[in-house]
Predict the structure of 5-formyltetrahydrofolate cyclo-ligase.
Amino acid sequence: MSDAIADAKRALRADLRERRQTLSPQARQAASTGVRAQLDALVDRLGARSVSCFLSTPTEPDTRAFIDAAVARGIRVLLPITREDGLLDWAVASQEADVTEGLFGMPEPVGELLSPIAINDVDLMIIPAAAVDVHGMRLGWGRGYFDKTIGSIEGCPDVYAVVFDSEILDEVPSDVHDQPVDGVVTPTRTIDLASARR
C-alpha cells in the first residue's frame, strides 16, 4: 500500500471514529431500531437462513437486537472470532451465549470454535465498516480480516456493510487488497451495490 493511501485511510478513520463518539444516546437508540428493521427486511428479501454478522461495539450501529431476533426466528448466525494469523474463526450465536473481549478489544462470542471455512455455508455476510462509497468500496478499520475473508470465499455470498447514514461517501481511499461489498445497510435504508462486485 502506498504511503499516500495509508495516510488517507488513517485520517478518514480518525475523523469517522470521532464523529461516532459524539452521537447522542437518543441518536444511537434510533439507529439501533433502524438497523434491526433494515437487516430483518434484508434477510427476508434474500431468503437467508444462515448469515454471518458481527457483535457491534458501543460506537457502531447496533447489530445485537438483530442477532437476538434472528436466532429467535431460527436463523443460523455465525459470529467472528479474531485469530493471530489474520483469519477469522466463527461461533454460532445463541441467546444465552457469553461475550468476551477479543484480540483487539472487540466483543466476541464465547462458544465452540468453527474454523474459517464455516463461512462458506452462509447465505449472507453482514460486516462492519468505517465507511462505504457509492461504488461499493468499503473502508474497514485497518486490520484486513474481512477483506481477507471475502477474498478467500469461492462463490462468495452477498456481502452488506453496516454504517451510519453519514458514512456513505462519494469515494473512500482503497488499495488492491480492499474488497468491495454488494450493499450497505444504514439505520434508514438498504442500498444494493451489487454491480460494484460483478
In short: The mean pLDDT is 92. The two ends are 24 Å apart (CA to CA). Residues 3-196 form a domain with the Rossmann fold fold (CATH 3.40.50.10420). The chain has one domain: 3-196.
